[in-house]
Amino acid sequence: MGSSFNIEGKVALVTGSAGGIGWTAAKVLAKNGAAVILNDIKSIEILESRKEELIKEYSCDSIALQYNVGDFDAVQSAYNEVFKKYKRLDILVNNAGTLEDNLVGMIRKQDIEHTFSTNTSGVIYNLQFAARLMQRNKSGSIINIASIVGRVGNEGQVVYGGSKAAVIGITLSAARELAPRNIRVNAIAPGFIDTDLIKPLSQEIYNQRLNSVKMKKIGKPEDVANAILFLASDLSSYITGQVLGVDGGMIM
Asked: Which residues participate in catalysis according to the annotation?
């Protein structure tokens, strides 16, 4: 399964990998030779089924860990499992996220807490435990999934935009701190991507978003997954502290 991306034999953990961008990223990493640890808050049956799919399709090693990224103790316990099984971690994709839109004045306390717990605290928890494992081999790549909304904002997305802007700040600070240990930390800011998150959009809003994309087409999960593969691989070995927009030219 040799690949110019040189992730053969590396161990990758992808949070929120039961569907959407996370599942596509897990498949791309497995296809290029990595052992892939799947995580999601969805049922363990779904995760186990995804794991079997990966093993069958790509002949890779894989385990499924069901935990809530916003639960510190659960994250710690999961990384103990990773250490027991692999004794290392080379790639972390902090992808798990939630989206709850509401206009200013209508935002509920529980929406703020849930969004920041998943999108922000979850990124820090996973990053911290991953970095501990990575520094054993003095190398690693952490890829945080932010959003275009965290860079330019959007009406009705004060909470989501705030949580994703925080991911960018986390990325830049962690990149500075971990660079001397040869652990790279980058973020990807997807634009308008065809996943379950856009299903609730009205046709009018869908068209508005599509018209804001200079390439005049919606992005695919594969577009983000391929960027993840690049940042996970040795081809990006001198790249850290960057926010890569995968947005078809929504912002330039």
From this structure: 160
